[in-house]
Amino acid sequence: MRVSKRASAVALSAAVALIASGCSSGGSGDNEGGSGNADGAVVINGVQPENPLVPSNTTETGGGKVVDWLWTGLVEYPNNGGAPQNAVAESIDTSDSKVFKIKIKENTKFHDGTPVKAKNFVDAWNWAAYSPNGAANSSFFADIAGFADVNTADPDGDGPKKAPEPKTDKMSGLKVVDDWNFEVTLSAPTAVFPTKLGYSAFMPLPDAFFSQKPEDFGKKPIGNGPVKFVSWEDDVAIKLTKFDDYNLRDKMKIKDVTVKIYQDEGAAYNDLLSGNLDFLETIPTSALAGEKWKSDLGDRAMNTVTPSTAFIAFPLYDKRFTNEKLRKAVSLSINRQEISEKIFFGTRKPADSWANPLTPGAKPGNCTVCKFDPTQAKQLLTEAGGFQGEMVFYYNADSSHKEWMDAVAQQVKTNLGINARAEGVPTFAVFRQNINAYKMKGPYRAAWQQDYPDVENWVNPLFVTGGSSNDGKFSDPQVDALAKEASAAPSLEASHEKFAEAVAIVDQKVPSIPIYFYGQQSGHSEKIKKMELNNVGEADITSIEL
């Protein structure tokens, strides 16, 4: 749920290699980008990660951005919105979009000093795909031949039956050729596959990972990125420092990064103004009114757009929400334009499509239930048999969501006559734990920040049965079949057209409801003289100069 803003997907010809061209992260790539930077330190805001930091088990942005800093993948997504570029990969070649020959650079290291080899990718991918390991991102490996032999599903959800034991723990489609080369065979040609390879699920793991419990590794992670792990005090801070042996182009220009964990964005904003915080990713809504944040920060104010969308998700495992007419009624009762103007002062755009329009392959305006139509909403509610009892809309209270979630609940109450209200869960970590345990008792705030620049990333993880972030347990055989056809399409154009058909079914079923497209307002301290945001609006720590 993290990646490129306007990146275009990789076009594959008869034989293609992703070639590194230019600098993806700003700056010259020198360790000491500016005078006095080499021993510098910055403090960046964050939230408590949901889980220990294992890349293939991290699906939320709190832990995700730290994982992105600690690891470097085969490819990376440039800040400027260009196509994916090689990072650890020396080359990625294919003649048929089915068999990919991957050569990695020979001189990169993990933070424990061991070399990054082809087996570290293959072993990591096999571990993630093997269903008994419970990696949340396991579905991202479904394209690879042999996935079905290592990944089995519970035949009745959380019922009494258990998933059958997989036939093996290694996918037949992965083959280590030698220390620096491996081969990936997919079950069908998949044009978007190389675009995916910069997402954190595909990161390598050191040999040390396999000699300990994943949760123990994740509390003291060993990556291969420009910074290495120092310490983690729950709900307080995560400390990182420059990895001196890092030799790819996006080297650090400063030494230390502290991710300070906040439970309140207002407190973070006050710290930014007082100089106790060096970068705040999201300005709280209270500071947007009258453009107060601009007058507070001056030329330290940063304004951008990201390929991210806010949703309201439904717990479809709760029988009260199984009627699609009820879900449509809720969506049609929400005035997105009013929320954009009155809550966000025009800094967010009303959502009108299922995939963010900044994404390659996304079709604008394809959400028919995103319009505001209280008359039709009331009619659909009647046809659904009404709604009994209280409808509680949940959100995490450690970020600026109270105002817009209160507005959503009030509109549902006013326009449908449902006894609705919004309720905050104290922290994002607890909020996500409840979602992952399927314990949500009402609609809840959700958001999707794309993992890689293709519309596929807005369908397979969210709406395919068993998708990595299909948190509401939506399942539709038509969507599954169309998404499978789309994923195996021989060209990106054909894939995008087939995904559009799948999205049309999603639009009929309404498993969740898009609310707004993110605009991002950020700010940095006077200490920072130069910095860039990455392709999803997070701080590019390798670009920071003091």
TrEMBL record:
Top-level taxonomic group: Bacteria
Keyword Signal: yes
GO BP annotation list: peptide transport
PROSITE patterns documented for this protein: PROKAR_LIPOPROTEIN (PS51257)
Domain (Solute-binding protein family) ranges: 84-469
Family matches, as InterPro entries: Peptide/Ni-bd, SBP_5, SBP_5_dom
Signal sequence extent: 1-22
GO terms, molecular function: peptide transmembrane transporter activity
GO cellular component: ATP-binding cassette (ABC) transporter complex; periplasmic space
Keyword Signal: yes
Keyword terms, alphabetized: Signal
Protein name: Oligopeptide transport system substrate-binding protein
Organism of this sequence: Micromonospora siamensis
